[in-house]
Fold this protein.
Amino acid sequence: MREISLHLLDIAENSVAAQSHNIRIEAHENLQSDLLTVCVTDDGCGMDAKTAQQVLDPFYTTRTTRKVGLGIPLLKLAAEMSGGGLTLVTEAGQGAKVEASFRHSHIDRMPLGDLAMTFLTLLVSYPHIHWVFVYQVTDRDGQSHEFNFDDVELKTILDDMSMTEPDILKFVRGMFEEGIEALAYQTVN
Amino acid sequence: MPAIKSLEELKRVREEALQKKQMKAAAGNVQGTCGIAAGARDTMKSVLSFIETNNLSGVTVTQTGCIGMCEQEPILQVVIGEDAKVVYGKVNAEVAEQIMRQHVQNGMPVKDYVLSI
């Protein structure tokens, strides 16, 4: 994986496979504390303590638990290589929360990448899931800016209209790209 | 945030889209998870951008998990109406555009990349 946003796409698909109804994805670039944290929270089937331990192991790949493959170990490695780490909080039947942190200024930290495309891919591909996407930037002075998207209103208005109709697609893509770009430029300065 | 402000505009966009919608019942289908590392998101981006720029109505785009052909990822499946499913392998952004144009839009499969029908 070359982008953190690709990892997010991957981890979110675990949540989809775990029969979640609600999935929340957060990315927070905090320049004040020099941290980049990403988090995927779902209300899916969760994992018992033993499985939760096993999914951190890259050699645990039996197909009986299709829920997770290499995704979590890869993200864990990427986080640890850039001075951060990964935590997995879950209980059987209680959903799961995967959080990865990276030292923002670390030379080995991969770029956050195309977050807008990750959000768009998930929203379009899994319309039956209630998605919440949050992108937050905290600048060096501690001031926070947030892009917060909850798909409820969008889906209420769209009703049964497919999100892959050209005009709708254009609207949603534009909304994600503009909202995220407006914040992302602050991380460059 | 713009998300809230522009919802009024979305209502208008939806009404217009409803007028234009055609029932072509074509379905594109990108494979995810293990394909992500192989570039499945770029494939998805290419498919969506083709729909947008060519104003292609009536296409459903979905995603499924690994189907056990990881070495062929990114994989794209196309189903048109009642036709049998066509599975394509090693579909990068350029190939995806070709498939969208030739197969989804004009009904002719792109033989070079077909894995199975």
